[in-house]
Write a structure and sequence with these properties.
Radius of gyration: 22 Å
Order of helices and strands: HHHHHHHHHHHHHHHHHHHH
Number of helices: 20
Shape: globular
Number of strands: 0
Length: 426
Amino acid sequence: MTTTTEIKKTSFLRSLTGQILVAMFLGAVLGIFLHKNISPEGAKEFSDKIQILATIFIRLVQMIISPLVFTTLVVGIAKLGDVKAVGRIGGRALGWFFTASFISLLIGLFFVNVLEPGVGLNLPHVDLASAAEVTGKTQSISFANFIEHIVPKSIFEAMATNEILQIVVFSIFFGLAAAALGDTVKPVINALDKTSHIVLRMVNYVMNFAPIGVFGAIAGVFAVRDFQELLVTYFKFFGSFLLGIGTLWVFLIIVGYLFLKSRMTVLLKRITSPLIIAFGTTSSEAVFPKLTEELEAFGVKDKIVSFMLPLGYSFNLDGSMMYMTFASMFIAQAYGIHLDLGTQMVMLLVLMLTSKGIAGVPRASLVVVAATCGMFDIPIEGIALILPIDHFCDMFRSATNVLGNALATSVVGQWEGDQELTEELS
């Protein structure tokens, strides 16, 4: 006779979350086994090949991000109906994003100054070649280039390269124009609405590949990295970082309970699967479509989700923000460079601006850290110090980015619900 416990266990293993956790475990076991039993060359070759599974999954997700952002954001703005509503939600969103970013940066700054993980550091096996690969991209994210980069030259180019911030700018203009024209463009908005539902159905199909992608990503990394050796060598850096990111999680969850009350528990259950996917693939972008679906199922109106999430992916990367100050100061400490509090605050403000809109850039956080180091006369080559452990840090910061965006969207959605209720009663 089948017990209730056995039924629950079976249903969990059949769920996407259960399958992803199993895939992570199997990937880690396979990677560790191969790392210990085959040559480094063989492990590298295996890693390159098995990570194709993760690449395929992420490319499948990237395939649907542009149409999803465009259709949902345009429809969301058109449904909002007027510029006043767009301005109100946009103002609340940006207020939340910049406050959360500032607090995330401060947490990173606090822990790196108190724990000083880079002081007296002597790390072996510095990979200067990989560092050069990262530092070569720093020109593209200066503040001036970022301002120019906000406005797309072509919406088709922006969609082809998945430039979320540029798609957001075009979609806002398109949606406002559609709202201003009213009933005459209803057929266009209805068509885009139906298109967004088709794309969301595609999300369900694509997510079936998530366990395979996570398995490939985890197996590939563990095959070429001795995780135990890395943790021992980088214990101070990684441990300090985990303490900082853990503090940020506690802060975000407490804020969530303050605004959402008991519904925060429901939200956390809803976003468990997206969190694990982001953690396993080190890509918050990989869960954008799934997160959209889960937040709507949580009860946030589709027009709020479609407006907030694309903005959040450009302006609200809490985990990445915390890591950027932490890593920049860590490199300065490793090279014995003292930065006074005033200089650190200037660095914090620079990061607030130059880090926006680069979610789609490979190794985005490292590129921003390299650019910041260059601005403050910290040796850019110091990036090589953190490259060996960066993948594992990226797992935590990607999941944190997902938590931050889910919370921001849910809270603003609740504020808007309260606003509409107040307007109805008055």
